[in-house]
Design a protein that fits this description.
It is built from 5 helices and 25 strands. With 443 residues, it is mostly beta strands. Its main location: secreted.
């Protein structure tokens, strides 16, 4: 009857049955509903239904909410003449076809749209159909449930540029199609690395076919340190003991921490969202641009904490001496040892050494992992002759538990210290730090 999705409607012909049904509809006085005038905005009467309902929408109407357009094409069938859809969420191997044409106005190729079952360019359209159509946003969806119960999940909502879609040279919608926020940010008992490790381990029983018809089972662990950014969020896991990396699914759970390709601003969080590594401001809002000041206050002006910059010389050979106890709420800690030939640093958190502690200098360490919000970073720099040149200890985030920084060595030890702490830090903690440092520091 018309190219509106009706069965075999490409030919635009009326059957005897359809003709009789329409005649009966009008003759029995049931057609009053068509007499009211439609509410039109602009030139909506000239716009095609495919501009509002894309091929994915048409698949969902025909086959249910999980259907979507086929990801491959059959060159034997004109693209606009048959609706082809994947009807199972995770099955891309089969394509079900419905013998109805795509709606007029459905985009079928770059700068081409369906019209009466054919994929045509603008110069093949009638003048009334070639009016420029600028894209307009749909309304926002509801916010999704939080993706995690702790550790910082993500809740998001989306909108689409389909009200209508841009066509005939029209402009795309301006602005973002996704809004997201961090949620359930209370700390988990497990680390962020452990959360990623659990997801990799869930695929241990899924075989990998390295050669046809040969299934192999492996143990999978996070590929942290090997991939970063968006690639890391694509469920990239490392084969334990084999040192190769494979994607084990479509994407990690939203809110899984990721390592950015470039350093993130102070206080920002980088987390996976839709298979990409996204930047959340210190306020937890996607791409808000909000950063922490040196005191660890989101959007602060640096006035809520004090700065200390001092040095320490001393220590004893073959013994670890605590020269600094960092108070809770300390931020932006930076410690440098410029004499690591005779001395080396160690860090004790609780009863556990996380840097050195065994009597020998440590190698590069990020504790607990590069994915953690409050991580500790230790770096050892070497000379061209591979001798120790400098040790550096960084704690950019807020210190959440008492941390003891120690030195092992003789009187040659020299540590330059820079750290900030909030005024709310317990006074006894500050006293401990003062007692280990030279006079002159502002505590």
């Amino acid at each position: 009857m018309a190219s509106d999705g009706g069965y075999n409607s490409v030919d635009l012909t009326w059957s005897q049955c359809s003709r009789q049904q329409l005649y009966t509809f009008f003759s029995e006085g049931k057609a009053d509903c068509v007499k009211d005038l439609p509410v039109l905005v602009g030139s909506l009467q000239d716009w095609k239904p495919g501009l509002y309902y894309g091929v994915d929408d048409q698949c969902r109407i025909a086959f249910g909410s999980t259907a979507r357009a086929c990801s491959f094409t059959n060159t034997d069938l004109p693209v606009c003449r048959v609706l082809s859809c994947h009807i199972k969420p995770d099955d891309n191997s089969s394509c079900k076809r419905l013998l109805v044409p795509l709606l007029d106005g459905t985009e079928c190729a770059p700068n081409q749209w369906c019209l009466k079952g054919r994929c045509v360019s603008p110069d093949q359209l009638s003048s009334s159909s070639s009016v420029v159509v600028h894209g307009s946003w749909s309304s926002w969806s509801q916010f999704s449930p939080c993706s995690r119960i702790c550790g910082g999940g993500v809740t998001s909502r989306t909108r689409q540029c389909n009200n209508p879609r841009p066509a005939f040279g029209g402009n795309d919608c301006k602005g973002r199609d996704t809004e997201a926020e961090l949620c359930h940010q209370q700390q988990c008992e497990r680390t962020q690395l452990a959360f990623m490790a659990e997801q990799c381990a869930q695929t241990d029983l899924q075989p990998l076919y390295l050669s046809p018809n040969t299934a192999s089972l492996y143990t999978w662990i996070p590929a942290v340190g090997f991939v970063t950014g968006d690639e890391q969020c694509r469920y990239m896991c490392q084969c334990k003991g084999e040192n190769f990396i494979v994607s084990r699914g479509s994407q990690f759970v939203d809110g899984t921490r990721c390592e950015p390709d470039s350093p993130a601003p102070l206080g920002a969080t980088t987390a996976c969202l839709g298979g990409t590594c996204q930047l959340f401001g210190c306020d937890g809002v996607l791409k808000s641009g909000k950063v922490e000041d040196v005191c660890g206050v989101c959007g602060g002006d640096g006035s809520s904490c004090s700065l200390t910059s001092q040095s320490y010389s001393g220590g004893q050979a073959r013994e670890y001496v605590t020269f600094l106890t960092l108070p809770v709420n300390a931020t932006q800690v930076h410690i440098v040892n410029r004499a690591p030939v005779f001395t080396h640093l160690a860090v004790l958190i609780g009863n556990q050494y996380v840097v050195s502690g065994s009597g020998s200098i440590a190698l590069n360490i990020t504790h607990p992992s590069p994915l953690e919000d409050g991580r500790l970073v230790y770096r050892l720099y070497l000379t061209p002759d591979l001798l120790p040149l400098m040790e550096e200890l960084l704690l950019p985030g807020t210190v959440t538990e008492e941390t003891h920084v120690q030195v092992n060595g003789g009187v040659w030890a020299l540590q330059c210290l820079v750290w900030w702490w909030r005024e709310s830090a317990p006074c006894e903690m500050c006293s401990k730090a003062r007692s280990r440092c030279p006079t002159g520091g502002r505590f």
